[in-house]
Amino acid sequence: MALNLDVDLLRTFIAIADTGSFSRAGQEVFKSQSAVSMQMKRLEEIVSKSLFVRDGRINRLTADGEHLLDYARRIVRLSDEAMQAFTEPDCAGVVRLGTPDDYAERLLPEVLATFSRTHPMVEVDVECLPSRVLRERTQAGDLDLCLHTCQGGLVYGEVVRQERLLWVTSPRHCAHEKELLPIAVSHPSCDWRQMAIDALEGAGKSYRIAYASSNSVAVNAAIMAGLAVGALPALSLRPGMRILGEADGFPALGEFNIELITKPGELSSAAEALRSQIIGSVSNVGHTLVAAE
Predict the structure, then answer these.
(1) Is the CB of residue 134 less than 8 Å from the CB of residue 98?
(2) Under-70 pLDDT residues of the chain
(3) pLDDT value at position 292?
(4) Looking at the whole model, is its pTM more than 0.85?
(5) For residues 189 and 130, what is the distance between their CA atoms, to the nearest angstrom?
(6) CA nearest to 162, candidates 1, 5, 19
(7) Interatomic CA distance for residues 103 and 163, integer angstroms
(8) CA–CA distances in Å: residue 165 to residues 39, 76, 206, 251
(9) What domains can be seen in the chain, in order of their start residue?
(10) How many CB atoms are located within 10 Å of the residue 124 CB?
(11) Backbone angles phi, psi at 174, to 5 degrees
(12) Residue partners of 104: CB distance under 8 A and separation at least 6
């Protein structure tokens, strides 16, 4: 008789994979460390595989654990969708959502696909604008929700994801080797642009802005054409992009937050449902695109 994968066990398993710690995972799922250990012992018995290996203070996944993690995320996500579909009241209306185009391309497809299945009567009106503009429009009540980039310790809303910013270039060109480094950047108010410029100036590295566009597709095209080096988050990497590090003479860029801001006052039931979907889904979107190191 086949044994079933308990969703509760899988939630705990995912929490350990995300935090690297049984104790921190326990805080995430509201269980004691001993209860977490017992759950993982049971899960390993069910799949007949070792799922973790100790690396100092960190619990890392084994190859079998990595294999199970993908299934676990999908099973838990489908379980949550099913519960939402049968327990949440039907809602309708229009939700105004703002996001930079980078996030619209990489984060929203999965979020909106899931949301449309559980809330088919809700229309989501998406506007792609710079983070600063989105923040101002949401705070003014013109948008119900917005995802935006935030760095430098500032917090405007709820942090839903943390991302690394990376130097990238075309593997077929040598723009990164030029003494006066050509860079491709977004609009002047872009946080990633400022992070890149601050890092270069802090390292005393000469540069020039060779290509500027508020459109992420255009910036990526300039990078892949060898016109310039760019600074992109890990989730936005394209197949074949080469990551540049300190060994290549490039200073570390650090991390930034992706935040969800809501308009002042009470949200409609449709906007609240989308807010919950974004919080639950954005942190789980994986880095499926692999760049060349």
Answers:
(1) yes
(2) 1-2, 85, 87-90, 152-155, 284-293
(3) 42
(4) no
(5) 8
(6) 19
(7) 12
(8) 36, 29, 20, 11
(9) 7-87 (1.10.10.10), 93-161+257-282 (3.40.190.10), 163-256 (3.40.190.10)
(10) 19
(11) -125, 35
(12) 126, 128
Residue 63 exposed, middle or buried by CB count within 10 Å (0-12, 13-18, 19+): exposed
Is 258:103 a contact under the CB 8 Å cutoff? yes
Q: How far, in Å, CA of 192 to CA of 279, rounded? A: 22
Rounded to whole angstroms, how far apart are CA atoms 148 and 131?
A: 5
Instruction: Report the C-alpha gap between 144 and 97 in whole angstroms.
Output: 6
Residue 199's identity, in one-letter code, is A
What's the rounded Cα separation, in Å, for the pair 269 and 143? 15
Q: Taking Cα atoms as reference points, which of 68, 29, 34, 71 lies closest to residue 51?
A: 68
pLDDT tens for 112-163 read 888 888 888 899 999 998 888 999 999 999 999 999 888 766 667 888 888 8
d(CA 181, CA 223): 13
Cα–Cα distance between 87 and 78 in angstroms, integer?
14
Could you tell me if 75 and 68 are in contact, meaning their C-beta atoms sit under 8 angstroms apart? Answer: no
Single-letter code of the amino acid located at 257: N
Q: What is the DSSP string of 26-46?
A: HHHHT--HHHHHHHHHHHHHH
Contacts of range 72-78, beta carbons closer than 8 Å, 24 or more positions apart: 72/5, 72/10, 72/13, 72/14, 73/14, 73/284, 75/5, 75/7, 75/10, 76/7, 76/10, 76/11, 76/14, 77/114, 77/281, 77/284
Look-up of token digits 């995972």: 25
CA Rg, the chain, in Å? 21
In the chain the first and final C-alpha atoms are separated, in Å, by 46
pLDDT confidence of residue 212: 92
